[in-house]
Amino acid sequence: MISETAKLLYPSVEKLVQEIVAINHAWKVACELFGQDSPLSVSSRDLKTCLQVRLLRSYAPKQVYLIEDKQSEGEPLYSLRLRKPIGERLYAEHLPIRIAEEVLTDKELKQFKKI
């Protein structure tokens, strides 16, 4: 049986994806209500990025990987693609490529993009 501490320190891929999706929705709402530069918007965006990095470092490339979203308009984005759907979800939101390049090492980027 997994201890409560272990669940907090090593969340499942499903749990991390749920949290990423929830924080992404909260970030979008905060941007609409308070503007994208508000403290709540910035904190939500940064938390989403931290959770995405945690997901990648914990589960890539076996369960999740980075792939450039060729259909995105505007800023170039990576999609955090899931190898197996979680519910009906096939990805764990998007991560701007420029942010990925800031928070991940070159080695990690190369490893996480492997298919």
Q: Give the radius of gyration.
A: 14 Å
Shape: globular
Query: Which strand-content bin applies to the residues?
Result: 15-25%
Mean pLDDT: 94
| Largest sheet features | 3 strands, antiparallel
The count of β-strands is 3
Provide the structure class.
Answer: alpha+beta
Order of helices and strands: HHHEEEHH
- The total count of helices amounts to 5
Descriptive report:
The chain is 55% helix and 20% strand. The chain has helices at residues 4-9, 13-34, 39-59, 97-103, 106-112; strands at 64-68, 77-86, 89-96. Strands 1-2-3 form a three-stranded antiparallel sheet. The longest helix has 22 residues, at 13-34. The mean pLDDT is 94.
Keywords:
about 55% helix; about 120 residues; three-stranded antiparallel β-sheet; alpha+beta; single chain
Task: Explain briefly what this protein structure is.
With 115 residues, this protein is of the alpha+beta class. It has helices at residues 4-9, 13-34, 39-59, 97-103, 106-112; strands spanning 64-68, 77-86, 89-96.
SSE map:
Blueprint lengths: L3 H6 L3 H22 L4 H21 L4 E5 L8 E10 L2 E8 H7 L2 H7 L3
Antiparallel strand pairs: 1-2, 2-3
